[in-house]
Design brief:
Strand content: 15-25%
Strand order of the largest sheet: 1-4
Shape: elongated
Largest sheet: 2 strands, antiparallel
Number of strands: 4
């Protein structure tokens, strides 16, 4: 499922069987897909490139424990997906700053790896600072922060 600013997750989007051994009451599986194409001349000089970046939610890997969740927790899970979209936007922005050159493949891969590392770090920081949604005040601060950051990068938003 691709990120869309007009769609908010619902519990019916979470299709995986809950992990009963986990302390978590819900898990959002989301990520960024990335592809690119390079145009070369007959003598192998790179003359152009295109890229494709998408933020996705993976229903078959996302789950929740029905008896322990509520709308507050769903909001926490939605923000994980929104953070994924934010980093897809950051990725697109960084790609837009790249210049066509014979090293573009290496540069694209380096930006991709950096974004994935940053995304993983921020998702962990979000869970830590909100204590997995338990700290309501911190949860609210994160929601505001992510909304502002998404807005700043609105020209790089996902479109299908």
């Amino acid at each position: 499922m691709s990120w869309d600013d007009s769609y908010k997750l619902s519990w019916t989007d979470f299709k995986a069987k809950p992990n009963t051994k986990a302390n978590a009451v819900a898990i959002t599986a989301s990520g960024i897909t990335f592809g690119f194409s390079i145009t070369k001349t007959d003598d192998n000089k790179v003359v152009g490139f295109t890229s494709d970046v998408h933020a996705h939610f993976y229903p078959e890997q996302s789950w929740y424990k029905k008896e322990r969740v509520d709308s507050h927790i769903l909001g926490h899970e939605q923000l994980h997906f929104d953070i994924t979209e934010l980093y897809a936007r950051k990725f697109r922005q960084r790609i837009s700053d790249l210049k066509t050159s014979n090293s573009i493949r290496k540069e694209l891969k380096a930006v991709h790896n950096a974004i994935l590392k940053e995304l993983s770090q921020i998702q962990g920081q979000y869970d830590k600072e909100t204590n997995y949604s338990i700290h309501s005040e911190s949860q609210t601060k994160w929601q505001t922060y992510i909304a502002v950051e998404l807005d700043k990068l609105s020209k790089f938003k996902s479109v299908d």
